[in-house]
């Protein structure tokens, strides 16, 4: 199983940008679909973005389309989430997640229960 460590969270003003990163260790990173989820206090964990293990197809929640970009660098075992035009409602703990790509080929990448590796999360706070 892959181990994940997020970094790069912080406090930013509305309209600003932030990039969070997730470093993976363990088994072959390139074989994993990677996802970003977030959770605000009192809310359920929600899907933000994902990137497939093969072809690097990307998917985004409607709330972040056009503002966030997910990418991966298999040589560095790292997945990134570039967040632009941030809004106060983007505030939350951002979690990186991994799942074996071939097992879930053709299935939705937005369901958190399909991911079996999670990081500890990094806090992102957007002030108005």
SSE topology string: EEEEEEEEEEE
Q: Please state the CA-atom Rg, rounded to the nearest Å.
A: 14 Å
Report the major sheet: 7 strands, mixed
Spatial separation of the terminal alpha carbons:
39 Å
Count of strand segments:
11
Structural class category? mainly beta
Q: Report low-confidence residues grouped into runs of 5 or more.
A: none
Strand content: over 45%
- Shape label: globular
Characterize this entry briefly:
With 128 residues, this protein is an all-beta fold. The protein contains no helices and eleven strands.
What would you note in describing this structure?
This protein is an all-beta fold. Helices cover 0% and strands 49% of the residues. The protein has strands at residues 3-7, 10-13, 18-25, 32-39, 46-51, 58-60, 68-73, 78-83, 92-100, 117-118, 122-127. Strands 2, 4, 5, 6, 9, 10 and 11 form a seven-stranded mixed β-sheet that branches. Strands 1-3-8-7 form a four-stranded antiparallel β-sheet, with no helix packed on it. Strand 4 (32-39) and strand 5 (46-51) form a beta hairpin.
Which helices and strands occur, and which strands form pairs?
Blueprint: E1 3-7, E2 10-13, E3 18-25, E4 32-39, E5 46-51, E6 58-60, E7 68-73, E8 78-83, E9 92-100, E10 117-118, E11 122-127
Parallel strand pairs: 2-11
Antiparallel strand pairs: 1-3, 3-8, 4-5, 4-9, 5-6, 7-8, 9-10, 9-11
């Amino acid at each position: 199983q892959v181990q994940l460590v997020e970094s790069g969270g912080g406090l930013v003003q509305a309209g600003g940008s932030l990039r969070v990163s997730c470093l993976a260790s363990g088994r072959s990173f390139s074989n994993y679909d990677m996802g970003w989820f977030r959770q605000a206090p009192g809310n359920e964990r929600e899907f933000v973005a994902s990137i497939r293990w093969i072809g690097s197809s990307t998917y985004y929640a409607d709330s972040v389309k056009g503002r966030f970009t997910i990418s991966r660098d298999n040589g560095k075992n790292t997945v990134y989430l570039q967040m632009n035009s941030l809004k106060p409602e983007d505030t939350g703990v951002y979690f990186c997640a991994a799942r074996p790509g071939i097992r879930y080929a053709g299935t939705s990448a937005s369901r958190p229960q399909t991911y079996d590796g999670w990081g500890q999360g990094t806090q992102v706070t957007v002030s108005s």
